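Lecture notes, part 5. Sequence design as translation. It can be helpful to think of inverse folding as translation between two languages: the language of shapes and the language of residues. The source text, in structure tokens, appears below.
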């Protein structure tokens, strides 16, 4: 009797499972929650939030300046006059209003 050798299925299954495992980890490294694409999204979002923070810091500084100029310690009469006219809608007789 001649014995035919059949292909060893164990090593083939092992290689196939290692290949599938490698594909899974590669996909997770690129598309996963902590993958390359997510990192790019987080970086872009952080950049946008830093720009928004800078704009808000500038607005806060402007408002602090206006508040300081209208405080009891330092009163800017021109600013007070401007704000009162703006809020009340008043105009002097000798002024010309351009809209």
């Amino acid at each position: 009797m001649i014995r035919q050798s059949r292909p060893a299925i164990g090593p083939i299954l092992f290689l196939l499972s290692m290949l599938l495992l490698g594909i899974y980890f590669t996909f997770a490294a690129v598309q996963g929650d902590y993958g390359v694409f997510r990192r790019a999204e987080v970086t872009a979002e952080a950049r946008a939030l830093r720009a928004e923070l800078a704009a808000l810091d500038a607005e806060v500084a402007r408002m602090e300046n206006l508040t300081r100029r209208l405080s009891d310690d330092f009163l800017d009469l021109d600013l007070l006059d401007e704000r009162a006219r703006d809020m009340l809608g008043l105009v002097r007789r000798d002024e010309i209003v351009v809209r």
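The translated text above is only one of many valid answers, since several sequences can fold into similar shapes. Helices lie at 9-31, 36-69, 77-88.
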